[in-house]
Amino acid sequence: MSVRFEELDWRETPMGAISLRRRVEPSLGVDVYEVKLDDEFLMSSLFTVAEVELARLGLASLPGTDLDVLVGGLGLGYTARAVLEDPRVRSLTGVEALGEVIDWHERGLLPDAALLTQDARCRLVAGDFFAMVRDGTGPDTESASQRFDAVLVDIDHSPRHVLHPSHSPFYSVEGLRRLQSLLHPGGVFALWSDDAPDDTFVAALKAVFTAPQAHVVSFDNHLTGGTSANTVYVAVRRA
After folding, report:
1. What are phi and psi of 201, to 5 degrees?
2. Where are the beta strands (DSSP E) in 14-112?
3. 66-95 pLDDT per residue, tens
4. Which of 85, 155, 194, 198 has its CA 20 to 30 A from that of 231?
5. Cβ atoms within 10 Å, residue 115
6. CA angle, 79 as apex, 78 and 84 as ends, to 5°?
7. Which bin fits 83, alpha (ψ -120 to 50), beta or left (φ > 0)?
8. DSSP summary character for residue 219
9. 55 CB contacts (<8 Å, ≥6 apart)?
């Protein structure tokens, strides 16, 4: 049996001290991987239903094949791996602001990391997703015209609860208009949120995109003995 708790990595970053921990969840008897930034929990492998649904819902309405997908916020890799499970996907670009997180995948510190690092369709890019949107550069500075069929984002806790104040403009009408430069006409933008559907953010989506939807994704929470929920927003760029 694994040791009950292990800190796999700890480093100082410009955003604070980031750590990767593995522990045994006694109620389930499984290993749980957790990421903390200073004293704040960023992500956990204990609850990943909505991260997978971000990929499924984001790709569900896209027609055709040879899809090029950008995932903003690599994290533990659940959304990215779910994207690669879709046989229509030609390429996946994962953008992660913290190079330490990419390093965890490349070093195999995370479960199933090889499904990303050894898939020829996948490349991992260290960079600030929000700066890419703001500056209109995308992940390839030498190819400013690059477009994607889907942009799936899981970085902040929600449009209102952001990890850094510089992220907030992204969730405005102007920020969402800038995001469109990364999408083909008819391309999909999808966003994970830890909060309930936000009418203000839905209104911003309606000002820019076609027929935005806020999907409530529910899952069993054994810690509370009840049900918890996240939100996945999905919107389509106008043709």
Report:
1. -70, -35
2. 16-25, 30-37, 40-44, 67-72, 89-96
3. 999 999 999 999 999 999 999 999 999 999
4. 85
5. 15
6. 100
7. alpha
8. E
9. 71, 79, 80, 82, 83, 85, 86, 152
Residue 141 has pLDDT above 80, yes or no: no
| Full set of structural domains in the chain with CATH | 47-236 (3.40.50.150)
Q: Which of 89, 123, 121, 132 is nearest to 105 (CA)?
A: 123
Tokens of 158: 């929600």
- The type of residue at 171 is Y
Most confident of 12-26, 161-175, 216-230: 161-175
Alpha helices in the chain (DSSP H): 49-60, 78-84, 99-106, 114-117, 129-135, 173-179, 199-208
Distance CA 94, CA 67 (A): 14
- pLDDT tens string 36-56: 888 888 888 888 999 999 999
Q: How far apart are CA 210 and CA 51, in angstroms?
A: 23
Token pair belonging to 11: 């480093």
pTM equals: 0.92
Element (H, E) at 185: strand 183-193
Instruction: Record the tokens describing residue 91, joined without a space.
Output: 């390429």
- Is residue 232 within 8 A of residue 50, CB to CB? The reply is yes
